[in-house]
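Researcher: Checking consistency across runs. Here is 16S rRNA (Guanine966-N2)-methyltransferase again:
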Amino acid sequence: MTRIIAGEARGRTLKVPPAGTRPTSDRAREGLFSSLDARFGFGDARVLDLFAGSGALGLEAASRGAAEVHLVEDDAAAIAVIGHNVGVVKHPRVRVHQMKASTYLATAPREAFDMVLADPPYDLADEAVVEMLEALRPALADGAVVVVERHRESPDTAWPAGYTPTGQKLKKRLYGIARMDMATYAQEHR
């Protein structure tokens, strides 16, 4: 069981897919979102949640005031759970996209997102994570923040040109086996 930590939907319980995804723990989400809220805020943010699983990351952003949220997931069972969870949070500007993250990024609108929350499978190769970050660049607004969740033992995220890890306090956060790597993006590197 997982729940929304703060905002309009605070305390509401979300379902998680029965298998095939690895939900971010409530503790990790609470720490991550406290950091994001303090540094960047959510008011009017356009948020992309890649590898959405239950949708908990994107829906937390919606509950905290994001203007719009796009949830991208390819697993059919997870999509059914996301549909339920969107109904629980009741944010009017949440969109669900059933497709692979790479397919979505190939057609994503340009400069559309201020915040990206990417939670790829821990066994996804580091090179594939870098490819995802490369493909993401056209969809990022100037100054966008990007968060990548990885296993704490995996190598540090290799940020491509244009990404700058955000200060020492936010650059890397550890929560159990999860590590949150963060960077901001500058458009002059397109």
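Researcher: Does this match what you'd expect to see?
Model: One thing to look at in this run: The two ends are 40 Å apart (CA to CA).
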